Here is the input.
Amino acid sequence: MPAQHANTSDEALLAAYRLTGQSDYLGTLLQRYTLLMLGVCLKYLKDKEAARDAVQQVFLKVITHLPAGEIQNFKGWLYVLARNHCLQLLRDKKHYAGDEVLDSLMAPEAGHTLALEKELTLQQLEAALQELAEPQQTCIRAFYLNQKSYQEIMEETGYSFAQVKSYIQNGKRNLRLSLLQKLNIRP
Amino acid sequence: MSQQQPYDLFEPDGSSGLTEAQMLAYLEGRLSEAETRRVEKILSEEGMDSDAAEGLMNLPIAETREMVNQLNQKMQRQLKSRRVRRRADTQLWTWVTVFLILILIALGYYLIKLIS
Here is the structure.
């Protein structure tokens, strides 16, 4: 990555590319996310050659069909583009995909954090925690209450990295929904 | 692929979430306890970083670096070829426009001659 652009924001790089047409700006911007895109494609396609091809195809899409409209969050936009591309490939080629594909399609969580912080009591939190499924409860307690790392949780429970991550994410989501319900706030 | 030293891993780089260097350091287990905690809090949120970590977890780091390098090189070539093609397209359209203007001038001259 060219050193002169290292601290430039995504949005500034995109604006500079649109203004000047100089591909260096777009190259720097895309290069910032190559690793992450490869990881996303690997997660969904579960095959490194397919993932490599998918990243190349997404790059090509961006290079040739960058929308003229404003992109407020380039990373988020690129993530959706890469993920949708992979899901389309899975639909087209009937690749096997696990339940996490469906999980990842769930809508973003509603932002009721402030209300929760104000009204939440420890008893309600404990009650909500106990309602969680056992693996989610174990992972949430270990990560947040006991400050354990993913590696430590994996060693203690025998879960894989993906399982730990998924139990924490799903546990958090369920915990939030449960707390909102207890506080009579519609999610 | 850029190689950064651990001490500047968490300096802002203009992008949000994890950078390439942070993700690689995490996957290689090169981070301190506090830095690992910071990364894993980001991974506990749904999104690109979290999905990417899950995907990269089972690929050997050396292979990951190699694939990223190849992808970057190919992307730079695509960008360059598009730039060359765009320049060639622009030149073609310039000549077509000049040619059409000359035809119009010639036609105009011929019509004026015909009328007078």
